[in-house]
Write a sequence for this structure.
């Protein structure tokens, strides 16, 4: 799969509802409860619809493999632990992160509006998707949201010799006036691990400065990165510091595992990292200026006027609009793979 739409002659076009239903059948068939399956299917379909291909249907075989290995409990029922204040905890019970967020979401929003800010700490969860689907809906409700999640150890610290960090993404969303929210979702690694896997599958070299081989030597070979090598952080020591911060917020604060701390060696086929996730949700009206949306729109407009042609999230929103008009294109081979799994 590439970041371009599938070729018309070999593509299958599905609506968002059709793709969601197909993915839902796959999840249910492989042991996910119907309610959890719906959440995972909508999440994965949204990534594919918006062009986030490294977290769209590309991930389905990994989901299935993890479920079949017994590593993750697709029918887990998360337990919300209400502290009575702005700090909320969820034990995902070795299930996926999306159902854990859904279980606590209403309470999180209520507390953010009550106190001006609220935190949600998710532990014992498996996160295998992009982060923007987690935070964008908060901004659509007029809230500011941040999320931090660690992963499995596949990134070396700056100057290090072995992987310690996950790709450790951060996501942020804020509402704007009369336009879609401003949303970014970026790894603290130089690129996403899923993009390395796609490059390996397609036989492409990586850009310079993305990873190292098992001996710590720089390499553009995605297979060398995946086979005992590692990614590097973006921006050298600066990205490394951010990756460390995500380990602290996503794992230490939530009670989750650090990226190199869990052992899945006995679960053949396991691919979903069992870690933690932290959400911070803010009611911007507490800032006191009464025009927060307008101010966000103003600063993003200034960035464009200064010469930055595309802001984070712009391409996703454009792809989403095209998918809604023309349906979501899947390569025939990918559609056949999904149909077989379903």
């Amino acid at each position: 799969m590439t970041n371009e739409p599938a070729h018309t002659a070999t593509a299958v076009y599905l609506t968002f509802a059709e793709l969601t239903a197909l993915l839902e059948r796959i999840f249910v068939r492989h042991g996910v409860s119907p309610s959890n399956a719906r959440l995972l299917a909508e999440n994965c379909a949204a990534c594919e619809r918006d062009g986030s291909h490294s977290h769209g249907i590309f991930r389905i075989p990994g989901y299935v493999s993890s479920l079949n290995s017994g590593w993750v409990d697709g029918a887990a029922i998360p337990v919300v632990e209400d502290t009575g204040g702005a700090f909320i905890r969820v034990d995902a019970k070795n299930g996926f992160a999306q159902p854990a967020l859904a279980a606590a979401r209403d309470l999180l929003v209520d507390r953010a509006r009550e106190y001006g800010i609220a935190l949600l700490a998710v532990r014992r969860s498996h996160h295998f998707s992009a982060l923007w689907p987690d935070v964008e809906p908060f901004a659509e409700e007029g809230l500011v949201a941040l999320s931090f999640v660690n992963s499995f150890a596949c990134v070396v610290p700056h100057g290090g010799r072995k992987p310690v960090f996950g790709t450790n993404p951060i996501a942020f969303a804020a509402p704007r006036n009369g336009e879609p929210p401003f949303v970014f979702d970026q790894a603290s690694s130089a690129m996403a691990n899923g993009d390395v896997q796609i490059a390996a599958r397609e036989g492409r070299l990586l850009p310079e400065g993305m990873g190292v081989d098992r001996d710590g030597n720089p390499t553009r070979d995605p297979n060398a990165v995946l086979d005992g090598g590692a990614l590097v952080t973006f921006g050298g020591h600066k990205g490394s510091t951010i990756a460390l911060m995500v380990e602290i917020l996503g794992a230490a604060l939530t009670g989750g595992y650090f990226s190199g701390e869990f052992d899945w060696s006995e679960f053949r086929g396991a691919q979903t990292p069992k870690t933690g996730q932290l959400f911070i949700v803010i009611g911007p009206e507490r800032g006191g200026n009464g025009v927060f949306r307008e101010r966000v729109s103003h600063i993003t407009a200034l960035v464009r006027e200064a010469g930055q042609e595309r802001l984070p999230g712009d391409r996703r929103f454009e792809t989403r609009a095209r998918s809604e008009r023309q349906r979501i294109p899947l390569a025939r081979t990918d559609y056949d793979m999904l149909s077989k799994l379903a």
Remarks:
- The chain is about 40% helix and 20% strand.
- Residues 97-115 form the longest helix (19 residues).
- The chain has three domains: 1-69+311-342, 78-189+233-306, 190-229.
- Residues 39 and 98 are 7 Å apart (CA to CA).
